[in-house]
Amino acid sequence: MLRAFGEVENALTSEQRLREQIVHVSARRSILQRSLNLARDRYRGGYASYLDALDAQRNLFAVELNAITVREQQLNALVRVWASLGGGWGDRTIADRSALPR
Predict the structure, then answer these.
(1) Exposed, middle or buried: residue 98 (CB in 10 Å: 0-12, 13-18, 19+)?
(2) Full DSSP string of 28-80
(3) In the prediction, which pLDDT does 71 show?
(4) Would you say 80 and 18 are in contact if contact means Cβ atoms under 8 Å apart?
(5) What is the pLDDT of residues 27-50, one digit of tens each?
(6) What is the CA radius of gyration of the chain?
(7) d(CA 94, CA 49)
């Protein structure tokens, strides 16, 4: 019984931590998007090389990949929460879903 409570607590804590990370990654993404826009404007104005715009784009892409990874981890943590609370899926549930129209 205590093990089950521990599993639920760990899964909920992990999900909360990942939710906080998503907020930080989203803020960083916004900053890097603005940086990309400024780099493109500087290039169009002739004040910087296109390499600066490419560098800003690469940084934004890396953060977007990180955001996807963190979101995946958060969804996996939610699955662990669900599983530690008893699940609710099984062979019967999977079979029922296969009959649903797509």
Answers:
(1) exposed
(2) HHHHHHHHHHHHHHHHHHTSS-HHHHHHHHHHHHHHHHHHHHHHHHHHHHHHH
(3) 94
(4) no
(5) 999 999 999 999 999 999 999 999
(6) 21
(7) 55
Count Cβ atoms below 10 Å from residue 66 Cβ, excluding itself. 14
Angle at 27 between CA 26 and CA 29, to 5 degrees: 65
87 closest CA partner among 8, 16, 17: 8
Residue where the block lists tokens 């990370």: 21
In single-letter form, the type of residue at position 11 comes to: A
Token pair of 77 as six digits:
């943590």
Identify the CA nearest to 59 among candidates 29, 38, 37. 29
The Cα–Cα gap between 100 and 102 comes to 6
